[in-house]
Structures are given as C-alpha cells and as structure tokens.
Amino acid sequence: MTRTKRPRLIARTELRRRWRTMKGNTTQLLALAFAGVMLLPFSLGGVFGAYLVGGFVAGSETEPLIEWTRTAFVYGWIFVVGFGGYRAYAVALRPDNLDGLLTTTSHRDVIGGLVLAELMLWSAFFLPAGSAATVAFAVGAGSVLTIPALLFALCLVLVTGIPAGFLIALSVRNAGVRSRLLSRLRTLFLFLLGIGYFALIVTNAFASVLEPIYRVLAPTPIDWFGDLAAMGLGIGASPLRATGAVGFTGVFVVIAVVSLYHLSEWLWYADGVHITHEVERSTDASSRFNRLSAILSQPVFGVVAVDWKRARRSPLSLSFALYPLIVLAGPIVTAVQTGEIGTGLPLWILLSGTWVAGSLFALNVVGQEGAALPVTLLSEAPERSLVIGHVLSGALLIAPITIAATVISGVLSPHSAPVVASLGVSALVLPAVSGAIGTGIGVWFPRFEAVSVSRSTKAIVPSAFAFATYSVAVLVVALPSVIAHSGIAGHAIASTVGVDRFVVGLSGTLVSAVLACLVGIASMYVAKDRVRNHRLG
Amino acid sequence: MTRNTNAIETRGLTKQFGTEFAVDGLDLTVEHGTVYGFLGPNGAGKTTTMRMLTSLTRPTDGEAWINGNPVSDRDGIRASIGYLSEEPPVFDELTGREQLEYFARLRDLPAAETETRIADWLNRFGLTDDADKRIDDYSKGMRQKIGLIQALLHEPDVVFLDEPTSGLDPRAARTVLDVIADLSDDGHTVFLSTHILSVVEELADVVGVLYEGDLVTEGSPATLTARMEAEEGTTLEDVFLSVTAERGPAASESVTGNTGTATSRQDGRVEDDERGEDR
User: Fold this and answer.
1) Could you give the number of structural domains in chain B?
2) What is the CATH number of the domain that holds B182?
C-alpha cells in the first residue's frame, strides 16, 4: 500500500460518514440548503464583482494594487487558518472510534486522513466559486495567465492554511489535555470565547483583533501569495516573491507534516490530566438550603436542590441560556465602550433575565429527568413537584440577579426614580413567572435523549422548537413593559395620553404582569396535566 | 529489542495516573495458543492493562512485549494484534459490510480474500442479511459481533477481547465462545477480559485476577478452584470473591489453602506445582 493510500481511504470514509450524518439530520440539511440559497447571490455577485475588479485593474496604477492583493491574500490566509483551526478543534480532531483506528493503522495515517478530508471539504466549497471568480477576473483584466496563477495561489493558501489551523488546534488540545487548570476551566474558557466572539460581531470590532495578526504576518512569506496571484497582471508583482511563495509552501508543508505527526501522537496517546471529582458533600445542609427546605414542601425542595446540583456539575445542559446572554452582550459592550448607561440597558437586562430564568430548567420538565423518569413518575404527585420545582429553580436563581442588575443600571441611567421602581417591579414579576410560561410549552416538545452539545459532549437539553416558541412567548409578554419603559416609546405614549412617564411605565408593568400570570398559570396547568398523564413509551 | 518467547510478556508493567496506580508492577507471561482469562472487579486495571498491551496507552514504567516485539513499537505489533474494546469500535454511519471492508483495506488485506473472509464471518455470526444495513440500526449484540469480526478479520496472532459477550443473547454469546475456542485451537492467543466467570471457567487455560492494579492470583481454573476444595463444589466465583475480598497475604492464603496442589508466591500469585495436570 502506498504511503498516501491509507490517508486517502480515511479521508474518503470520513467525508462519506459526515455526508450520511448530514443526510439523516433534517436541521443540518435545511441549514445547508439555507446557506446555499443565501450564498448563491453572493457567489454570483462575487463573480460579477471579480469581472468588474478585473476591468478596474487593467487600467489602473500599479503600486497600490499589488499591495491590496498582498493584503487580501494575507487576510484570506488568516481566515482559512482561523476557521480551519476552529473546525479542527471542534470536529476533525475528535474522530469516532479512535481506538479502533489506532490499533489498525498508524496515527500518521489517521491525522493525514483527517487533514485531507478537511482540505477536500474546503476545496469543494471554495474552489468552484473561486474558479468562476478567477475566470471572470481574468476576462475583466484581459489576462489569461491570471487564471492559473490566481487558482494556484488559492490552492497554496488552502494547502498551507488548513494544516496551520490543525497545528494550532492540536497545540491547544495538547495543552488542554495536559494542563489541569485548562481542563477544569475549559467550559468557562469556551463560554468567554463565545461571548467575546459575539461581542466582536455586535461591536464590529474585528479589525482591531485582525490587524495585529496581519502586522505580524505581513513581513512573512504569507505576503508573497499575493505576488503569485498577480503574476500576469502587470501590476508590479515580484516574480522572485511569487517563486518564493511556491518554495515556502513546499517547506511549510514538510514542516507541518512532521509537526502534525508529533502533535497528534502526543495528543492521542496522552494520558490526559487525571481529574478526580472531589467528594461532593451534599450541600443540602447549607444555610441557603435550610431556609428553602423550611419554606418549600420536601418534593419541590428536592427538585430545586437537584436542579441546582446538576446544573453546577453539568452546565452544558443549560446551553440555551447562552442566547439571551449573547443578546445582552451587545448593549453591555456598547455601554462599556461609550462609558454611558443609556435608558435601553436596564430594559435589555430585564428582557434577558426574564428570558434566561425560564430557559434554564423549565423547558423540559419531563425529559430532563433522564433515566430517573420512571422513578419520578411513580413518586407522590410528580406533576406538582416537577412543574413547580423546575419553575422555582430558575426563578430563585435568576430573579434576584435580574432585579439587582435592572435597578442598579436603572439608577445609573437617565431614568427617573419612579420609573426605575416600576422597572424593578417588572424585574421581580417577569423572571419569576417566565419559567411557568416555559413549562407548558416544553411539555409539548419533550427531549428525552442526550444530544451532542459539542463533538465530544452529550447532554439532555430542551428541544430547539420549545426554546424558540418560549422565546416568542416571553417576548410578547414582556413587550408592554419594555415599550412602556423605553425612552422614545414611553415618552411618546406619555405625551399622547397626557400622563406622567411613571404612570406609563407602571401601566406597562401591570399589563405585562397580568399577561405573564395568565399565560404562566395556563401553561403550568397544561404542564401538570401532561406530567400527570405521561406514560412511558 | 525483540524477544522470541511468548505471545504476551510483561515485566514490572506499571501505569500511574497522578498519584494513583492503575496497574502496579504487573509481571505476566502468556504462552502462544493460550486463552488467558483476565479477571478483576471494576476499576482493577484490566482495561488499562489491555490498552497498554495494545499500545494505546504508554506504560509509566516496566516493559511489555507482544510476540517478542516491544509494545512501544506500535507499527511492529499492529499487524499481530486484534482488539475488541468494551464499547464496540464501529462507525454508526457505515453499513456492517462497509465497516469491515474499511478496516480490511486499512490493514491492506487483499481485496478478493477480504471479500471471502467477510462473507464467511458474516455468515458465521448470522449477519449476512443485515450486512448492508447501517450500523446505526443494529442492536447492541449485532454491533458487538461486527466489532469482533473486525478484530479477527486479519487473523491476528494475539487477540484482546474486552467483555466480548457483553450485550449478547445466549445464542450469540455461544457463537462467540465457540469462535474463541476455535481461535485457540488454531494456535491464536486470546487475552480475554470479562466479568462472566462461567465464560472464563469454560474457555481459559490460565486465569489471572487483577485487584487494585496487582495480579493477586494466577493459575488454571481447576488449580485455583482446587485451592478451596475444603468446601464441596468450589467455583471460580468463590476464588474470585475470596482473593478480591481482602487484599494481600490474607487473600492469597485463602486461595492456597493446604492441599499442596499449588503454591502461593510472596505477591499472592498462585503457581501450579510440578503435577500441573489441571492445565
């Protein structure tokens, strides 16, 4: 068997498996179709744009154009390395059945196959569009030589960028499996990284992150790919640098292959840090639990206590709570950037707090019992303990935080004190009731089986439909309060009706509270009924 | 370094995770053609030992050889071992036949021969009709069978089986046991880890009991049970419970008893005496 035959076989099989997985997953297929539909106009526009740029290049000054080309290729390379590295970390470097593969063939073949699979995947997506754009550009520029030069340069970007991404991902994962600190804080790091990423998108601050990376790479041979792409255009591309780009690719690939072999071996044969879970002393006896135990009935208290313990030990099951936090990240970053708290921030906090409170525990009251469901259903009045318990778990945790954050940000904002007080009432009622709204919606879309939250982690999370429906319901319920307290709408209503802003705010709070209570009670009734009549399939 | 002696040999094999010893100075010798029953309670270090012997995990200390090749030479031992892990190593998205063809190709088996072998094995395990269904749709037993075929397809000299009858119905389990017996008859060495003592009692030529990383007793099933013959009808289960109930000399004492058919070493290992007729 030739040296490349096994990696090619592994790559082919890996792609075939991924395709079959995607074919069997309606959500993924729809997402792919949606992306295709969305990208088609961009691709066609890109091809036409390439034609126009080609025409522009043909009759322009040379000096800035070659610089632009070089810059574009460096940024393109950063993109490939960044996304390639992310995919390697999250997907490619966690092959299924690794033990089976490693007792059958060498780690060199396995890593080779995985890198090759990613290269084929990227090529399948980018080369068709890239080829079309290249031809259009060449036609516009009137230079046939541009076609092979540009395509060749694009290929070299992929051939160096994808392994570079793998190298970074392997280094990160090697550090992760060897560092006790990184292992313990992995979820926190990923959470902060996700929040930071969305904050960059919301604040449009990508350039401030990419520019330092560009400045590091600009003096390196990565900058030479632009010269290779521009050969034949007559815009001042250096043949020496173009040749250097090819040579650099050769050297880089050799070094990358050797490094990939070593890094993958270190990763896959690593023992990993051995984290033993400390003895989990029951915290039921703590003062907070004591107080709750005295107030709540024992079955309800039991559900609340277990919810909190499970959440602390397996926070991934609360992944839907990330979405409200991501939404909230934008206003917070804006406030930090401007140094001012506007009238909108307390409203965003109120809305997000309400949204989070119901999404934590109440959206899958039956399903999240997991393997314990048969026992739970046989307990005394399970509908009462499960539904009320899960609602309280979220409310007791989030409502105090929401009230405090809403009131503090309200005080620091231009809102008047009475309006802040009215907002505070909303922050008390809405997060307390949002869980109740979630229960009835959740029981219609129960999720019993664990799903892959990431490639390597499974958890029972609520259904996406339940979360989406719940999100709309919460938004509708909270809207009167949000509108009544908002700077522009609240002021407009007060002026039109001829009453004080506080009255408008309080009215909004009352409408939202009544709505929330009505919907919440109805939803809990439905949930209790479904739990009471639930039969194991 | 190559040793031309036994199918499996370890000297002082040790695996340490942090401050914990999963396997502690394991000395083991398994001759060619032997079925070695590897017993031990949960967490005793059986799977860690198997992972070291199949080169999936590096030993912290000590050495091990498969067919004379050190396990550190992964490329050297890969062709001579087959491994069925506790969780069947299968790809859900492939069909049973595709899975087997894939691993046969990775092992560079000749295509025509592969086809025949796969057909024979599928037929033997009653999987012919389901061979072109996706493994996703297989029962646990069917997945286990595919995993076992995958481990045996290249006819390895030494086969490591971790709970091979787990999840199988009695008929399928019987087929697996017959296969293991046939492997032994054909001169293959089988290193068998299981909790089902009757399987070991039936198949194993030698039994080793691992407890907290130490090999606390070793010998043929008959020899071990003979050590407790003070009670009528002593079984391997009695031996197992005895040696794992309390670690150390007390445990080994209870096995060695006073009949003189086996001797206990300082570390608790039981060795056959010169009669050795039970082997």
Assistant:
1) 1
2) 3.40.50.300
Confidence of residue B253 (pLDDT cuts 50, 70, 90): very low
Q: Is residue B137 part of a domain?
A: no
Cβ contact A13–B74 (<8 Å): no
Domain that holds residue B51: 8-80+156-274
B175 found inside a domain: yes
Taking Cα atoms as reference points, which of A421, A434, A455, A268 lies closest to residue A355? A434
Is A104–B107 a contact, with Cβ atoms under 8 angstroms apart? yes
Residue B232 lies in a domain: yes
pLDDT of residue A310: 84
Asked, for residue B151, whether it belongs to a domain, the answer is no
pTM of the model: 0.75
Measured between alpha carbons, how far is B262 from B8 in angstroms, rounded to an integer? 23
Question: What residues of chain A, 428 to 467, have a C-beta less than 8 Å from chain B?
Answer: none
Q: What's the sign of the alpha-carbon dihedral A89, A92, A96, A98?
A: negative
Q: Tell which of A17, A101, A104, A277 to mutate to test the B interface (max B CBs under 10 Å).
A: A104
Give the model confidence (pLDDT) of B256-266 as tens digits.
333 333 333 33
Q: Counting beta carbons within 10 angstroms of the beta carbon of residue B127, is it exposed (0 to 12), middle (13 to 18) or buried (19 or more)? A: buried
User: Is the per-residue pLDDT at A455 higher than 60?
Assistant: no
Contact check, Cβ <8 Å, B90/A99: no
**pLDDT tens figures, A170-213:** 999 999 888 877 777 777 787 778 777 777 777 777 788 889 99
CB contact under 8 A, A109 and B134: no
CB neighbour list of residue B17: distance below 8 Å, 6 or more residues apart? A271, A274
Mean pLDDT confidence for B64-93: 91
Region A158-172: mean pLDDT is 96
